[in-house]
Every structure is written in structure tokens, then in C-alpha cells.
Amino acid sequence: MTWSPLKSMSYGLRLAGLAAVAGCCGGGLGGFPVWRSHAIPDRYPIGSVERAHFHTMQTNGEAGDFVLYRHDFVGETAELNVDGRDHLMEIGARLQTTPFPVLVERSDNNANPQLDAERRQMVALVLRDLGHPEADQRTFVSPAYGRGQTAMESEFDYFRYIFSRGGFGGTNGAGNNGTNSSFGGFGGFGAGGGVGR
């Protein structure tokens, strides 16, 4: 029997068609099922994406625990106040088990780099005395992770919170302190937001 090129092309096309039909029907070559690893799911399990975001937020929050702020020091000196000493003791207790650097908050606009360097040196020295020989390599002068608020910004946020939550004990007659179903009730004040309807 001779094998012609036309027969081999015909045989190849039949085999390709069979493979295509078997692939469309969920089977593999020759109708055998295709093995798929279930180690990597097609979809993420419920909550796994949110869990990753929450873990990132928690890690960033823990890194913020290792910042010594300007208010942890006495005035414009390198001496720690009582709260600053307590904070540094907490940092010293956790430093061995965490990868975070210790930050000393920089002065506004880097106005006093000499004071910042003295504060950093003092913090590294105390941490070294607490049993952390690598403290000098892990202590930096830097701006804090999150920008703080000015007094005016804080005051605005405070009053916005108070007035939006029905502060000052006013009610609108529905017992909800002016927060729901009140017309113009700023914390129990305003048109329709006072005591009684």
C-alpha cells in the first residue's frame, strides 16, 4: 500500500476536526477528559480580596506604631516626655519581632535638622540600651506616614461630626436626635429639627 500526500492530509484534517469537537465538548484528544488542577481556582473565594486589603491596612497601621512624633519630645529638645518614654518602651518591646523602621518625625519643612539628628541619635541610643544592637541602622528621621491636621482642620471636622450625629442632646420628636427624617435638623437645631414637631 502506498501512502499518498493527499491521504495524509485527509487523515490530518480528520484528526484535527475530531480534536476540535472533543475540545468543544469538554473532552481532550480522543474524547478523554482534560485534567485541570484545582489548586488555583477560577474565582477567588469570597472575602479573599477584601482580606488582602485589610491585611495591608493593618500592616500599615502597625508601621505607624513605630513613629516618634514631635509631641513625644519636650519642646524643642531631644528629651522625651512621659508619653514619649512610654512609646519608646513599647517600640523597644516589639522591635525584635517586626520589620518596620523606627521613625523620628522631622521638624516642619526640615527647619531644624540639627535637632532632628539629636533626637534620632537619642532614640537609637535608648533602643541599643534596651538590647537592640541594630537600632542605629533602623532609626531614621522622616516625615510621619500620615499628614496630621492643623488646629483649624481639626476644629472643622469636630463640629461637622457633632452636628451630623445629633449632638447637644436635641431630638426631633422621633427619638433619633435629628439624624433621620428631620428637616434641616443640625443636631437637633434648625427648622423642624428641634424638640417636638
Chart the SSEs and their pairings.
Blueprint: H1 5-24, H2 48-64, E1 67-68, H3 82-94, E2 102-105, H4 113-129, H5 135-138, E3 139-142, H6 151-164
How would you characterize this protein structure?
This protein is mainly alpha-helical. Among the domains are: 50-142, no CATH class; 154-197, no CATH class. Helices cover 43% and strands 5% of the residues. It has six helices and three strands, in the order ααβαβααβα. It has helices at residues 5-24, 48-64, 82-94, 113-129, 135-138, 151-164, and strands spanning 67-68, 102-105, 139-142. It has a three-stranded parallel beta sheet with strand order 1-2-3. Helix 3 (82-94) links the parallel strand 1 (67-68) and strand 2 (102-105). The radius of gyration is 33 Å and the shape is elongated. The N and C termini lie far apart (104 Å).
The helix-and-strand class reads mainly alpha
The tally of helices reads 6
SSE order: HHEHEHHEH
Strand order of the largest sheet: 1-2-3
> What is the share of helical residues?
40-55%
- Beta strand %: 5-15%
| Radius of gyration of CA atoms, rounded to a whole number | 33 Å
Low-pLDDT segments: 177-197
Shape: elongated
- Alpha carbon gap, first and last residue: 104 Å
Mean pLDDT: 78
Query: Mind summarizing the main beta sheet?
Result: 3 strands, parallel
Per DSSP E runs of 2 or more residues, the count of β-strands stands at 3
Question: Brief description of this entry?
Answer:
The chain has helices at residues 5-24, 48-64, 82-94, 113-129, 135-138, 151-164, and strands at residues 67-68, 102-105, 139-142. The chain is mainly alpha-helical and 197 residues long.
